[in-house]
């Protein structure tokens, strides 16, 4: 109990908004769902989703002797928005790359746990290993998995990064909360490409985020023309229409302060940007994941769809 209380206080001190803890065990139900999702090819060209299946469903294969999975939510909802007439960028990418920001916090968290508790083993992850983050967030009572596939927190909505810290010490465990989507289907109805094929099931191979970020060295299929709703990098439509996000509050993380170009660039600015300028402006931004060539491709595709 004392260790659990310390960890939750430490999480708040390090800037995490929510902390939930679950027993490290094999996720049998999630394993069946993931297997079916992969069999249907909903991961598109993201072949890495097929790798390390055993590790995805069992944290004890990532950390020897794992007893507990600590799940953390970090708010990224911005106070400001882009120009209405500009190609749209997903809100998570407004500021610095979250991997760098959150990885440092996880490292500090584990170090301070070791100082306080003793010789414990652990590993922190933020999109960096085969971990089913949303499943652990749900089991840790941080929210439910909504019809849009996102973790939704009843107090604060869904604009959160999810991080996990797997450790070999037993702690007090939280339990899941209820599902509060009810009969609402706003996200299913609003998805520009019909990627939400059933409540909680995202066909990744039809998602705008997949086409604009994950699809590498390929042209976006012509059949998607005119369906991107001006999204250039990622897509927030299913979160923007979610009623629970009326409770979203602006984050306090200076590293997530929007890069001025994200807020100010016009369509013309994006189209005239050189590769050198892109590398200088977005060197610490998630946009570097698509690279300059990917952003150019996405812009050209949006123009085709007009």
Automatic annotation (TrEMBL):
Its cofactor is cob(II)alamin; [4Fe-4S] cluster. Keywords: 4Fe-4S, Cobalamin, Cobalt, Cytoplasm, Iron, Iron-sulfur, Metal-binding, Oxidoreductase, Queuosine biosynthesis, tRNA processing. It comes from the Bacteria. SUPFAM superfamilies: alpha-helical ferredoxin. GO terms for cellular component: cytoplasm. Its main location: cytoplasm. It catalyses: epoxyqueuosine(34) in tRNA + AH2 = queuosine(34) in tRNA + A + H2O. Transmembrane segments: none annotated. TRNA binds at residue 216. It is found in: Cytoplasm. [4Fe-4S] cluster 1 binds at residues 181, 184, 187, 242. Pathway: tRNA modification; tRNA-queuosine biosynthesis. Binds 2 [4Fe-4S] clusters per monomer. It is an enzyme of class 1 (oxidoreductase). GO terms for molecular function: 4 iron, 4 sulfur cluster binding; cobalamin binding; epoxyqueuosine reductase activity; metal ion binding. [4Fe-4S] cluster 2 binds at residues 191, 207, 235, 238. Cob(II)alamin binds at residues 56, 127, 148, 151, 162, 209, 235-236. GO terms for biological process: tRNA queuosine(34) biosynthetic process. The active site is at residue 127. PANTHER family: EPOXYQUEUOSINE REDUCTASE. Catalyzes the conversion of epoxyqueuosine (oQ) to queuosine (Q), which is a hypermodified base found in the wobble positions of tRNA(Asp), tRNA(Asn), tRNA(His) and tRNA(Tyr). NCBIfam families: tRNA epoxyqueuosine(34) reductase QueG. Belongs to the QueG family. Monomer. This is Epoxyqueuosine reductase. It comes from Chitinophaga dinghuensis. The lineage of its organism: Bacteria, Pseudomonadati, Bacteroidota, Chitinophagia, Chitinophagales.
